[in-house]
Amino acid sequence: MAQKRSVVPPPGLAQAGYSLLELLVVLAILALVIAIAAPRVIGYLSTSKVKVAQIQIQNIVTALDMYRMDNAAYPTEQQGLKALVERPEGAQSWNGPYLTRGDGIVDPWGRPYVYRTPGLHGEVDVSSLGADGKDGGEGEDRDVGSW
Question: How many domains does the chain have?
Answer without folding.
Answer: 1
